[in-house]
Design a protein that fits this description.
By secondary structure, this protein is mainly α. It has one domain. The protein has 14 helices and no strands. The protein has helices spanning about 5-10, 20-35, 35-40, 45-70, 80-105, 105-115, 115-130, 135-160, 160-190, 190-215, 225-245, 250-255, 260-270, 280-295.
């Protein structure tokens, strides 16, 4: 799933002469994030425990990246730290819900619904501005509702557990929305890597407590899926997107975002034999179009 730096950097950076190298980084970052659910499925821990290891194993690398980018890890005031700590708890709830959903639904559905935070943030912005939604926003909401209804109905036809998995992924998007809203003020004062480090530091013990409460297996026998999850979702995917997003407008970002569900569908078919019917594909197209319209409707990026 995309985290703080992937979704916020587009809103705070300027498109600055993109090259083929930048586009390749943008595309590769989305592919790396899309393969994250595959690693969660392959891990021999519980799904929430895999989220704990994703954060815990990434902490040294996040600290290194923050230091290399001159983003201090100390010096936060009490109020800022409280907000970041609360955001870390929400980040943990986001990952716990999403990873439980990944274990119970198709990878394509998990990728689509896990990115629903973009739509929720758009709706929240309309409510906060106390205005009627614009045409683009109305189209995005209608497409999201129609596509979600189709996919949820198809999941119910397949298995009740699959529907529950979809709902967990949608819940993850809701948690992620409030996580972003809490960190918006801190994002203006501290760097993305520093904030991600602190939110991960706070979220990791919460995920461990949830995994223990659910009776999940914590210690893995095979570390490779967890290492792949940490590097792919938390470091490589994030790093490539942080590097590339500042160079592109929302239109290009929205289009490349659509590679995530496509890659997840291919991974689900290749690794787990998951198949899609025509109606499933139509529902995914509608939700993907809604995500694209939500990105397209964003304000033009401002220079740092």
């Amino acid at each position: 799933m995309s985290t703080l730096s992937t979704r916020q950097s587009a809103a705070t950076a300027s498109p600055d002469q993109p090259t083929a190298r930048h586009f390749a980084a943008l595309l590769a970052g989305n592919v790396a994030l899309a393969l994250g659910p595959w690693s969660v499925r392959l891990a021999d821990t519980g799904p929430v425990a895999s989220g704990f290891w994703r954060l815990a194993l990434a902490l040294p690398l996040l600290a290194l990246l923050a230091n290399r980018n001159r983003q201090p890890l100390s010096g936060m005031g009490r109020g800022a730290w409280a907000a970041v700590a609360a955001a870390g708890v929400l980040f943990a709830a986001d990952l716990a819900s999403w990873h439980i959903g990944i274990a119970r639904t198709r990878l394509g559905n998990a990728s689509l619904f896990g990115n629903s935070g973009s739509l929720i943030l758009m709706a929240w912005g309309v409510i906060a501005a106390r205005r009627a939604p614009r045409g683009m926003e109305v189209l995005a909401i209608l497409a999201a509702l129609a596509g979600s209804a189709i996919l949820l109905g198809r999941s119910l036809e397949i298995d009740h557990a699959t529907l529950v998995g979809d709902l967990f992924c949608i819940l993850a998007g809701l948690f992620y929305t409030f996580y972003i809203l809490l960190l918006q003020r801190g994002r203006a004062r501290f760097g993305s890597w520093a904030l991600l480090f602190h939110s991960s530091l706070t979220g990791a013990p919460v995920l461990l407590a949830i995994a223990l409460a659910l009776g999940e297996t914590i210690l893995p026998h095979n570390w490779w899926p967890l290492i792949a999850l940490t590097l792919g979702s938390q470091v490589v995917g994030q790093g490539l997107l942080v590097y590339a997003l500042r160079h592109f407008p929302p239109l290009v970002i929205g289009l490349t975002l659509l590679t995530q569900p496509a890659v997840s569908v291919l991974a689900g078919w290749f690794a787990f034999g998951e198949t899609l019917g025509a109606l499933d594909g139509f529902g995914m197209v509608l939700v993907a179009a809604a995500l694209f319209l939500a990105r397209l409707g964003e304000a033009p990026p401002k220079a740092d």
